[in-house]
Amino acid sequence: MLTWYDANKRVLPWREAGAGAWAVMVSEFMLQQTPVNRVLPAYQRWLERWPTPADLAAEAPGEAVRAWDRLGYPRRALRLHAAAQAIVERHGGEVPDDHEALLALPGVGTYTAAAIASFAFGQRHAVVDTNVRRVLARSLTGVAQPAVSPTAADQRLAVSALPEDEPTAARWAVASMELGALVCTARTPNCADCPIRSHCAWVLAGSPPYDGPPRRGQTYEGTDRQARGRLLAVLRAATAPVPKPTLDAAWPHAAQRERALDGLVSDGLVEPLANGHYRLPG
DNA sequence: GAAGCGTGGGC
DNA sequence: TGCCCAAGCTT
């Protein structure tokens, strides 16, 4: 798998030599639930504008929300901004290399802390994302898909599979994730090109189909989530505070619109002004 | 532990 | 055409 990775890895800006821990951190925030191809343009603009945590920390949080563009889940932008401020206050403006310190930052959970420590600092951590969970479910457990949500068993399995040697563990982490992203994919895995197919428990079992409980599809049309997205899109595009009637026009269902707007305000994504106008948080 | 949280692309 | 999926985190 390590050899396969060296020959087949994608060229990505946050993987370039000297990209730095901040670049890795920004990419990890953006890649939480958003595909690589959609992240790339926003990532490039982001690092040009805010090349260090201090640069971002000095901005209004609303600017982070605006620059987040249409990556989705805009609370991630607020958390990245808050994390940058915490890095300035607690770590002298440098992304910490300590797993515990990373985990304490806003928006950084188990996966992201391990990813930054491993990808940026070469440490030995189990980096368990949806790709790795799928690779391990197939190759070691022998089932078509991992559990619906991450489990303690997934984490234990990933730890048990991790090479002992630190630099090898770091290479293994990124390689296993890339294998899941490029070859051992969710829908139609390309087993013919897989470097571990001769060891894969799922392939050796005859590639049995998934037989677990049905996976809940995520509805979107007509949801509060969609309403929030519409309202925030209006505010992102505006250069001045927006009068309420303009927001009203963005979502016809009044009760749902007000609920969504209240939610955005309580999340800190929208700031209501005294004159009844609204804007991204200053 | 479940629910809430965006957006768009691919099959 | 829908449906599934995408480097999760927080409450």
TrEMBL record:
UniProt cross-references to SMART domains, sorted A to Z: ENDO3c, FES
Keyword NADP attributed: no
Presence of the UniProt keyword Metal-binding in the record: yes
Alphabetical list of CDD domains matching this protein: ENDO3c
Required cofactor names: [4Fe-4S] cluster
Family recorded in the similarity comment: Belongs to the Nth/MutY family.
Entry protein name: Adenine DNA glycosylase
Taxonomic lineage of the native organism: Bacteria, Bacillati, Actinomycetota, Actinomycetes, Propionibacteriales
